[in-house]
Amino acid sequence: MREPAVSVPRRVLIANRGEIALRITRACRLLGLHSIGIHSEADASLAHLRLVDETICIGPAAASGSYLDAARVLRAAELTNADIIHPGYGFLSENADFAEAVEQSGRTLAGPTAAIMRLMGDKISAKQQMRRSGVPCLPGTEDALPTDLSEAQTICDAIGYPLIVKAAGGGGGRGMRVVMIAADLRDAIETAREEAGRAFGNPSVYAERFLQHPRHIEIQVLADRQGNAVWLGARDCSIQRRHQKLVEEAPATGIDPLAIAELGERCANACTLMGYTGAGTFEFLYEDGAFSFIEMNTRLQVEHPVTEMTTGIDIVREQLLIAMGDPLSFTQADIRTQGHAIECRINAEDPESFRPAPGKVQSWRAPGGPGVRIDTHLYDGYVVPPNYDSLIAKLIVHGTDRTDALNRMHAALSEMQITGIATTTPLHLRLMNEPGVREGGVSVHYLEALMRKSAP
Amino acid sequence: MTFLEDLLNDLPELVDRMRRHDVRHVSLKNGAGALALTLTPAPTSNPEQTPSISYPAKAEDTPVPSPEMGVFRSNGLDATHPVRSGEIIGFVEAGPLRLPLTATADGTLGPALVGEGGVVGYHDVLFRIHPDG
């Protein structure tokens, strides 16, 4: 195993909770790093807090007063003398102001610089950067739509319909409107602007061609501070509901590996060109054999384990090594993907209505066997608080091929037991046997259509 | 700057000089403002290394939580010291703020559960107060 490049112990503050905090703790322990766990008042019994070297309660249960409060997280870093902050995903992980404050405090964020976060956080500047790097984008506006609606209409008519109006500073489906015909454009722009201003503090919107039945394909990258960048294969995350992914897999089935490889090379080159560091994900829509860039996530993704399972690379460990200044220990030529991996997100939600279902876990029995991995912070008696995201476990399997992986997932889901609260497990069990899922290559609308069809 | 702000800035040096010259009490006046300082005994070990003290909590004891995440500063009160609810029994430094730690009940103060200069979390219990009688 490669040792850290520096001889002095490095202190890592884990600025997150739940399964991802446990995942980062494990990587710290693997590297012999001093780990510091922060938590809210509601989270004092989180599983990773038993494993870290130091803990500190940073605030009340509400995320706005704890995990989302940049000043508190930074104060915790100062009090505990942390020199690296790993933000995980969600919360402050893509907050450029936080990244800048971390830089100004003399600490290192396990991620890209604040400047890169800002570049990629604004969807318009991100698309401009992608075009400069040769990464394929949808036909659409180069800049924000003008405030003059007549001018905006002329520009959008030239793009053609259907199109989608999107918030420049947005994500997660907010500030987004699909326009099927020209007559609906003005209302859509005004509504999207209003929503974007409210949600993101930036009312700028842009327009691009709307794909009707795309798949969601993404490329995982890693880039070090020495200018080396690699891509680690593609993931298919098309099974989603309201833009929230539910099942992810790697590799992306039914797409020419040479086309994926060409796209991956372009993504890695884009990282080098912009000076990207750390782990990141380029997200694309894929329809009719063409990829179109949607956005770049400048952080670790929930679904990173499927890439780890197919490449054998520990992405979180690499993130920490990069933050410590180490160069990547492998080149693109060293990366091989093997077999097929699937991840099911187990959420504390009603499997039909998707309503959050917090509460006490009476008993938890993890599945096992060859090729089965579970990333979770659950234990018997754990109380899922109502204050945060409902993700409580990620069940990941690795098989020799896609059919083998689907079969292993079904078996693992059947074996897994979580009692006391409702979870999405029954839905996943059903999905593993659905003809569309068995065949592969479904679009991002598949799950919602399936749920509508089976609604009483 | 106000008299009080000036004084807070100079406090570490003032305390240091009081210790060196064995001065226990100082009274300061400036216009409408006045302040009396009473020096507590100096800590006997490296404060950063002081481990949390294990103290068996009793059901009837009232906990005194830290008002914020920060650094604990003792007020020099001994364990078994009688306190009244609202009395200042220590401080927590949270960034530039020095927040008072006040007794949450009348009774007898137990020993501090964290050493002088120790890092404390939000609402960490720093003392327990045993009811009198």
From TrEMBL, chain A:
<dbReference type="InterPro" id="IPR011054">
    <property type="entry name" value="Rudment_hybrid_motif"/>
</dbReference>
<keyword id="KW-0460">Magnesium</keyword>
<dbReference type="InterPro" id="IPR005479">
    <property type="entry name" value="CPAse_ATP-bd"/>
</dbReference>
<keyword id="KW-0444">Lipid biosynthesis</keyword>
<keyword id="KW-0276">Fatty acid metabolism</keyword>
<feature type="domain" description="ATP-grasp">
    <location>
        <begin position="127"/>
        <end position="324"/>
    </location>
</feature>
<dbReference type="InterPro" id="IPR051602">
    <property type="entry name" value="ACC_Biotin_Carboxylase"/>
</dbReference>
<dbReference type="InterPro" id="IPR004549">
    <property type="entry name" value="Acetyl_CoA_COase_biotin_COase"/>
</dbReference>
<dbReference type="Pfam" id="PF02786">
    <property type="entry name" value="CPSase_L_D2"/>
</dbReference>
<comment type="pathway">
    <text>Lipid metabolism; malonyl-CoA biosynthesis; malonyl-CoA from acetyl-CoA: step 1/1.</text>
</comment>
<keyword id="KW-0443">Lipid metabolism</keyword>
<dbReference type="InterPro" id="IPR016185">
    <property type="entry name" value="PreATP-grasp_dom_sf"/>
</dbReference>
<comment type="function">
    <text>This protein is a component of the acetyl coenzyme A carboxylase complex; first, biotin carboxylase catalyzes the carboxylation of the carrier protein and then the transcarboxylase transfers the carboxyl group to form malonyl-CoA.</text>
</comment>
<dbReference type="InterPro" id="IPR011764">
    <property type="entry name" value="Biotin_carboxylation_dom"/>
</dbReference>
<dbReference type="InterPro" id="IPR011761">
    <property type="entry name" value="ATP-grasp"/>
</dbReference>
<dbReference type="InterPro" id="IPR005482">
    <property type="entry name" value="Biotin_COase_C"/>
</dbReference>
<keyword id="KW-0547">Nucleotide-binding</keyword>
<dbReference type="GO" id="GO:0004075">
    <property type="term" value="F:biotin carboxylase activity"/>
</dbReference>
<keyword id="KW-0436">Ligase</keyword>
<dbReference type="Pfam" id="PF00289">
    <property type="entry name" value="Biotin_carb_N"/>
</dbReference>
<keyword id="KW-0275">Fatty acid biosynthesis</keyword>
<dbReference type="Pfam" id="PF02785">
    <property type="entry name" value="Biotin_carb_C"/>
</dbReference>
From TrEMBL, chain B:
<feature type="region of interest" description="Disordered">
    <location>
        <begin position="39"/>
        <end position="77"/>
    </location>
</feature>
<protein>
    <recommendedName>
        <fullName>Acetyl-CoA carboxylase biotin carboxyl carrier protein subunit</fullName>
    </recommendedName>
</protein>
<dbReference type="InterPro" id="IPR011053">
    <property type="entry name" value="Single_hybrid_motif"/>
</dbReference>
